[in-house]
Amino acid sequence: MAQSTRLVDLVHSRIDEFINTRESIVTTISPDLTVLVDFSRQFLSGGKRFRAQFAHLGWQSVPAPAEPHAAGPLAAGPGDAPGRTLGNPAGIVSVASALEVFHAAALVHDDIIDNSDTRRGAPSAHRRFESLHAAQGWAGSPGDFGRASAILLGDLLLGWSDELLDDGLDDAADRASARRARREFNLMRTEVTAGQYLDILEERAWLVQPEAELLDRAVRVIVYKSAKYSVQAPLVIGAALAGATDDQLDTLRAFGLPLGIAYQLRDDLLGVFGDAAVTGKPSGDDLREGKRTVLIALARERMDQPARQTVDRLLGRADLSADEISSLQQIIVDSGAVDRVETLIQQNVGQALAVLDGSDVAAGVGAELTEFAGTVTRRVF
């Protein structure tokens, strides 16, 4: 995965470069705005860059035109799998970077919605602004200031992601491909916002929904909040930028959706059982937030009435004790839901990999996609 490693390094550099150019604009307005730039840097400095890598793999998956490979930072080196290489790397690097900045914006807003204290083992954005308010001794509520400021930070990052995307599309050699990549990006934005709303809806509306519909509704949240946005859309955006045909895009959609579902199912397990040292979030955080995930829907199907009453009484309480979290975890395990989710993960990964058999993705990229499928779905507790 040498090219993906180089891509991640280039994305880091591109984001740093972009923020440096925006810092002068923001701080010219007022030095008080420096904190927006500083917090942006902090939130964009880490992470696995999965979306950037999927965009790059989508771009690589489109066989290159029959011409000599041009040299460039992402050109194939010794031992690299054959496939598309970049004569002008700015386009895909900027588009991949735009996806990472969009993701940071979504996380800032998501943490406000979920009232999360941490992100990647550090304070979430609204908690950082809250601490700033308290440290400076300003008037009013630190919590109100923190939430309002984080909303604005998320909005700023959303705007910056669009600017980065435009930079990448401007570098595309083919205008039709650039327009198609833009349409796919716009579709992703709409779908993930809709999925986010469905997520908060299910946390509250489950009480009046028919029991038989809860699993399907939880799957719908996974598809639109995470699966399309985390895996499928980045693959398709990258491929569209490379000039993919309809059939090539359909292949990536068919691969990306089940892999994205498997990715989120693993994340749901981590949200309930994950080690804080690994996930960067408190253990059992999804239980405190009241997430009505596929894991919970499957568990409810096989719980007896006393266990179901316990889950419904405790799930979503922000003040859950360690003993209460442990009790909920044991109820979920005893229901067999963890094993069922593990089976679903393997089934969806298998479905995704089956799409690659006999597909027309560029030589060598299928192997990278297969390896990456394991990387994003075998995360440990």
UniProtKB/TrEMBL annotation:
SUPFAM superfamilies documented for this protein: Terpenoid synthases
Name the Gene Ontology biological process terms.
Answer: isoprenoid biosynthetic process
Question: Is Transferase a UniProt keyword of this protein?
Answer: yes
Q: Which domain of life is it from?
A: Bacteria
Pfam families in UniProt: polyprenyl_synt
Which UniProt keywords are given for this protein, alphabetically ordered? Magnesium, Metal-binding, Transferase
Q: Which cofactor does it need?
A: Mg(2+)
Q: Which GO terms describe its molecular function?
A: metal ion binding; prenyltransferase activity
Sequence intervals crossing the membrane: none
Q: InterPro entries from the xrefs?
A: Isoprenoid_synthase_dom_sf, Polyprenyl_synt, Polyprenyl_synt_CS
Q: Which family does it belong to?
A: Belongs to the FPP/GGPP synthase family.
What is the protein's given name?
A: Polyprenyl synthetase family protein
| Organism encoding this protein | Cryobacterium lactosi
